[in-house]
Every structure is written in structure tokens, then in C-alpha cells.
Amino acid sequence: MKSKQIITMITLLVVTLAAYIIFSPADDPASSKNTGVGDEPLAGLEIGRIAAITLTTSEGKEITTLRVEKKADHWTVAQRGGYPADTARIEGVVKNLVAMKILRRVPAGKSQLGRLHLDEPGAGKTAAAQVELFAADGKSIKVIHLGKELSAPGGEGGTSAFEGGNYPDRRFVMLDAEPASAAVVDQTFSNANADAADWINRTDFFEVNNVLSMAVDYAGTEVTNSWKLVRENTTTNWTLVAALEGEVLGQDKLSSFAQPLQSPTFNDVLTGVAANLSTNATRITLGTEDQFTYTLTLGEPNTEGEFPMQLAVVAKLAGKRIPAKDEKPGDKDGRDLQWQNQQQQLKMRLALHQKFSGEHWTYLIPGHTVSGLLKKRSELLSSKTDLPPLGPVLPFPPSPPISPPQNPN
Questions:
Q1: Could you tell me which residues come within 8 angstroms of residue 297 by beta carbon, excluding any fewer than 6 positions away?
Q2: What is the pLDDT of residues 6-35, one digit of tens each?
Q3: DSSP 8-state code for residue 139
Q4: Helix and strand numbers, DSSP H then E, in the chain
């Protein structure tokens, strides 16, 4: 082979190699996927295969990761000790991923990902939020990078009443870390954050109805502030148990006790050291008309006034129905069936409420949930003072004699 031909072949090889390096899909703004404007790139996603989702976000170099995963037949939040997850939120994120449509293709090279905020989490201000879907065997199904949010050109995204600007209504995304797949889609995925408190199920929680007894037991030096109230039914007044001499209950101070803890809420589930409560914790005990007893153990409030709380629930369910004295034989079967149905409902309620109880769950509840109950003993007593005693009662002085009327004549 002549030297000229060898030189030509080497030149062609160098040019080809250079072209591959320069125009490689890994860093080629002009390369494209088989998707275009209006397409739904994840329309074929097999939702039924998804068994876990991780969301990774970052602030500066600090990275936060959230993992929600299926355990048996329900979703849980790993960073909250496996507490039940908000299924509606999970379904919403997945639904938006599947339904997102491409508004504009923006295939970019690796060096251009920063301006789209599609860099890896931890990269600073240009980092993306990363969503990764996993199958039951732990294998990754899909990785989605969520980049910079955008507003529609010309104000199509709507105008903010507060800032006068446009609301974001679209976002840069990248699939499977491939710069060539970068695009603007018609979703913002505003719910795709890594704050575990936002992913726990706060819709389902216990509630207490028809309270007939309540007690607050303080510990340590506050023990003398403890108290217990009882009443015959929900329409009668409260009575102070073991009232001391001179203690008179102020019924006008008990308005917050009418239906305590009818709709309690919580802000988060605590784990680790934060979940441990002191043995000197305050306890609130409520007894209900249907023989349920709820005990709330409270830790010290935080700077926001929120209390760590653990719950215990027990119930005394009747083993058999006691017939009424005037019950007729023909009424027995119907009343037995009615009683059995009521007992079944009570058992279901007990099982549901006990899901929230035990030392394995410590809730962070807002202060207003229990503030109406956390009264000191003196705060329950009548503030009316006795009138000062009257002095000795003296007899009225005798009336002067009445003179007879004068005769004018």
C-alpha cells in the first residue's frame, strides 16, 4: 500500500473519530429521541410495576431523599418509620408523569444542562429534582429529572395577584439522564418534593366522641394541678372527682370540654430520639359512652407550640347482651341482631384506632389540638368570691306615735 493511501486512510479515521466525539448523542444538542411536540413520552409506563418511588432534591450541596414504597397492599414512607403514605399524592405524581405532553423539544449537551436546571442533585442552583421509579425486584424502571419551571410565553400561565408575574405552568424534564431527551412539558410537578411530612397520610386519624370522663395527670412538681371530671351523659354538667373542701367547679369555664378531641390532627410523625417521651410526661385520659378509653401521653412542646404525642386505646366490649326488663319474647331476635351489628362496628372502630396507638408511633400535634384540655386544676374552679358577712342585725327603732288629724274647724 502506498504511503499516500495510508495517510488518506489515517486522515479519514481521525475525522470519523472526531465527528463521533463532537456529535455523540451524549453531548449533541441536535440529537433527538423518537418523541415530538404533543407526544406523551411516558404514556407507555406500566404503572402496576411501580413498587417504590424515590424523590431527591437538594439545597446547595445538601441532598434530601424521600422513599415511598409498597408494603403488602399499602404505601408507606420509609423516612417516617414505615408510616402509611398519602396514596392520593402518590397517584397524583404518577398520573402527571404519565400524562405529561411535550410542548417543546430542547435536546441539550451535558454542558448545557445547567441552564435548564437539569444537573444532578447536589450541583447547587442548577440541580434538578430527581424522581426514580422502581419495580418490586428493586430494579430501576425510569429516572426523571425535573428542571427549571417556566411560565407560558405572553402571560398564558396566568397572572399572580400578589407579585404581578406569571404562574409557572411548564417545566424542563430529562428522561433516564439522557440530555438528548430534554424537553419542556405541560406539567410543573409541584407536589414532587422530598419533605417526608408532606407524604404521610394525615386524612385517617382517630377521633373521640361522647366523652363522659376526662382527666389530666401532671407529673413532677405539677402533680397538684391534676384533675378528673365525670358526667352522667353528654347533656349533664361535669363533676370534679375528689373535690377538696372549698373547691367549686366553674361550669362556665368548661366550654372547651363539650366534645374534646372530636377531630384531632397531626403535623408529622417523629422518629429516632425525637420520638422518645419522658417518663414524667403529661397524660390526658378520656372515657367514652361506649366504654372506650383514650390515653394521650404528651412530651414537651417545641418552639412552635407543637407537642409530641403517643396514643393508647382500649375498650371494654360486652360479651353478651343483657335483655331489658320489659323486653317481649318477640323482640329478642331483632334486638340481638341490632346488638351484634353494634358490637361489630365497635370492634372495627377499636381496630382502626389501635392502628394509631402504641409506642411505635409518636405524632407531632399542633398545640390547639390539646390546649383546650391542658388546664390547671385552679383554672377549673369558680372564680366567684363569697360576699363579706353581714354585721349583727339590729331591731328597727320604734315608730313615733301618729298624731290624730287636726280638725280645721
A1: 277, 281, 282, 283, 309, 310, 311, 312
A2: 555 555 554 444 444 333 443 333 333 466
A3: -
A4: 4, 17
